[in-house]
Amino acid sequence: xxxxxxxxxxxxxxxxxxxxxxxxxxxxxxxxxxxxxxxxxxxxxxxxxxxxxxxxxxxxxxxxxxxxxxxxxxxxxxxxxxxxxxxxxxxxxxxxxxxxxxxxxxxxxxxxxxxxxxxxxxxxxxxxxxxxxxxxxxxxxxxxxxxxxxxxxxxxxxxxxxxxxxxxxxxxxxxxxxxxxxxxxxxxxxxxxxxxxxxxxxxxxxxxxxxxxxxxxxxxxxxxxxxxxxxxxxxxxxxxxxxxxxxxxxxxxxxxxxxxxxxxxxxxxxxxxxxxxxxxxxxxxxxxxxxxxxxxxxxxxxxxxxxxxxxxxxxxxxxxxxxxxxxxxxxxxxxxxxxxxxxxxxxxxxxxxxxxxxxxxxxxxxxxxxxxxxxxxxxxxxxxxxxxxxxxxxxxxxxxxxxxxxxxxxxxxxxxxxxxxxxxxxxxxxxxxxxxxxx
Length: 439
Ligand SMILES: Cc1cc2nc3c(=O)[nH]c(=O)nc-3n(C[C@H](O)[C@H](O)[C@H](O)COP(=O)(O)OP(=O)(O)OC[C@H]3O[C@@H](n4cnc5c(N)ncnc54)[C@H](O)[C@@H]3O)c2cc1C
Prior knowledge:
Blueprint: E1 3-7, H1 11-23, E2 28-33, H2 45-50, E3 71-75, E4 78-82, E5 87-90, E6 95-97, E7 100-103, E8 107-109, H3 128-140, E9 144-147, H4 151-162, E10 167-170, H5 183-195, E11 199-201, E12 206-212, E13 215-221, E14 226-228, E15 231-234, E16 238-240, H6 243-247, E17 256-258, E18 269-271, E19 276-279, E20 286-290, H7 292-306, E21 319-324, E22 327-333, E23 350-351, E24 361-365, E25 371-376, E26 381-387, H8 393-401, H9 410-413, H10 416-433
Parallel strand pairs: 1-2, 1-7, 2-3, 7-18, 9-10, 9-15, 10-11, 17-19
Antiparallel strand pairs: 4-5, 5-6, 8-16, 12-13, 13-14, 19-20, 20-23, 21-22, 22-26, 24-25, 25-26
Helix pairs in contact: 1-7, 8-10
Bound molecules: flavin-adenine dinucleotide.
């Protein structure tokens, strides 16, 4: 009987457990997680903060459970990995043997880089415990400062604002989410935020945080502005949790390096989800994502391979549908040209691949607060951002994801008034000749 061990019971770990159970009904599956709440929807935390969903709704019945999978959950932190001895040591001293191991340890928020930053009492949003802390602080907060340019920072801003806390939103650059949104898209989001009374401070970096013990009193910006606040929240990027792998001598870079079978440099150890940096042997390109949907697909692929399969991960286009300043927004494929470096390479709900748009022409269509931007390459669409009206998001996901040849329709796609019609026609034609891909 094969012993499967999975570190991390997030979406990747659970998808792997599901796939293993399907392929191997008798195998022993153990998951280790240091999150006391087990498995729940992390993207749902945004709606929990804003009060749109209750805590139980983060655990929908459709999510797989340990019972249904006949899997054992151990709530503990994994402390050390011995790849030669095939053992994992837990912080409490227990040792777990394995035949195949999956590292699905996710990522953690990067702390604010100011002098003494590690000791600043800033809130973050990695998990349900953090969301509870933010809500507890919001109950008595008179003024909040939120720092960070990506989705998580926006979610905290909107959550606090929905709870009636006046919010100052500090952006290091000119606009929100500059790695992904263009100027006009960012302006649409910012206008919505301002409409809800949120005060935006662009080109603003924190130089110092005034605090007495664990109580924040004010933030001082590099330009010398003092913003009094009693709640500080930070979401400037995430860092994959790859300490176990690194200490065990596995190859790591910006994440744990894996091949298309999701195998690390030790073939019986796999990695998936936020922590995995997938290397495409065809191009040498690496893929780091912090996306729920891709985490699920990677976990499932890793699980099938752990249970004896030999299936390359197909590198589907990174995709996210989210809400930015109240605007439903879908991001597909490569849409930006600003690759960030260092520990802030990626924020949650984002793919590094979005920052690498190849040579393409940008076309914008839409009206009345809706906007669709497509990036038109020579023979295929390379990416898209759909804001507001979502009519084109499914067609664009298929056209980008399936690398549909657009050559014949290119002139229309390059015409703002004709592009939407051309997208629909290309999609209808593609659907008539192809099976539906997985979402
Ligand atoms: C607030 C928020 C909003 C988001 N919004 C979106 C969105 O709109 N769209 C989208 O696509 N994605 C979004 N994401 C990102 C998405 O949730 C993640 O990409 C996804 O959860 C990653 O799954 P994972 O399984 O790789 O890691 P995780 O879900 O982070 O799970 C990893 C698990 O491993 C455990 N762990 C780590 N190290 C150890 C250890 N040493 N010992 C024991 N346990 C360990 C952790 O406790 C955790 O439970 C959001 C995330 C957050 C937090």
